[in-house]
Design brief:
By secondary structure, the protein is mostly beta strands. Helices cover 11% and strands 41% of the residues.
């Protein structure tokens, strides 16, 4: 089964939960088609801007082959959910960005990936342009104290940054495995973590291991050799911006809990829903949040 969601110049901001949530019981592939500029913002501390706490496939793509659709998804306020991905303590899998321009941000969750103390696996950017940032989570990957596995960038343009998490990888005090960059243009940076890899805490531990390994083997090294190795270690201690060759990019952000639900008993969101198609446009300005049920 497939569920198609068409976002056409939508602006949803809510404190009641996520701006748009893919319900936990959804098993069908959900494809979001972008037209114009679309904003999904939550100020609920536990929710994601675009929230997905399940294993169903989520695909974000352009509605048109000629015009770039834009999605901006954020977990503002305390920001424990992802921009796109899981909410606080939530888990998600299978987020794919095929095309379009995606901008996702959070504070303790990942820009795209898991929320605070959550997990997110299988994030794929196939093409497009993606900006993802966080303060304590990764730009793309795990949230603060969260985990992630299997991040793949096939092509496109990707700019991922964090303050204490990795640009791409784990958040502060988190973990991440299997990061693959095949092509495209990728900029990954962090103030105190790795550009690509671990957040601040694990980055410091890795530095400590390197220094310990060096001094454990320092005996017998000549003066010139010691200075050469020490100089190398100080280079490793510097913060790093990582540039890799990449070409196509798609952006995915995680987080959210919702105020108004599509097909939710007692609520009329004013959404045309037929044959698993949901269209949300300017006329739905009164909608403060959406839950997508199977």
């Amino acid at each position: 089964d497939n569920i198609n969601i068409y976002l056409d110049n939508v602006n949803i901001k809510t404190s009641a939960g996520s701006a748009l949530q893919i319900n936990n019981n959804v098993k069908a592939t959900v494809t979001i088609y972008l037209t114009g500029i679309n904003n999904l913002t939550t100020t609920n501390q536990s929710s994601a801007g675009l929230q997905k706490d399940n294993e169903a496939q989520l695909i974000i793509t352009n509605a048109s082959d000629t015009t770039t659709g834009i999605l901006k998804a954020s977990s503002d306020g305390s920001g424990y959910g992802a921009g796109i991905g899981s909410g606080n303590y939530g888990s998600c899998k299978n987020i794919t960005i095929n095309s379009g321009f995606v901008d996702a941000k959070s504070k303790f969750g990942a820009g795209i990936g898991s929320g605070h103390q959550g997990s997110c696996d299988n994030i794929t950017i196939k093409s497009g342009s993606v900006n993802a940032k966080s303060m304590n989570g990764a730009g793309i990957g795990g949230g603060h104290h969260g985990s992630c596995n299997n991040i793949t960038i096939n092509s496109g343009s990707v700019n991922a940054k964090s303050m204490h998490g990795a640009g791409i990888g784990s958040g502060n005090y988190g973990s991440c495995n299997n990061i693959t960059i095949k092509s495209g243009s990728v900029t990954a940076s962090s103030t105190s973590g790795a550009g690509i890899g671990g957040g601040h805490f694990h980055h410091v531990l890795e530095r400590g291991d390197l220094v310990g390994d060096f001094f454990g083997k320092a005996n017998g090294i000549g003066r010139e050799g010691i200075f050469a190795e020490v100089g190398f270690i100080f280079l490793l201690l510097e913060n790093q911006t990582v540039y890799a060759v990449e070409r196509n990019a798609a952006v995915i952000a995680d987080d959210a809990a919702a105020a108004v639900g599509v097909r939710q008993a007692g609520d009329d969101a004013g959404v045309a829903c037929g044959a698993h198609v949901i269209r949300i446009g300017r006329e739905h300005a009164v909608v403060v949040g959406l839950v997508v049920f199977e």
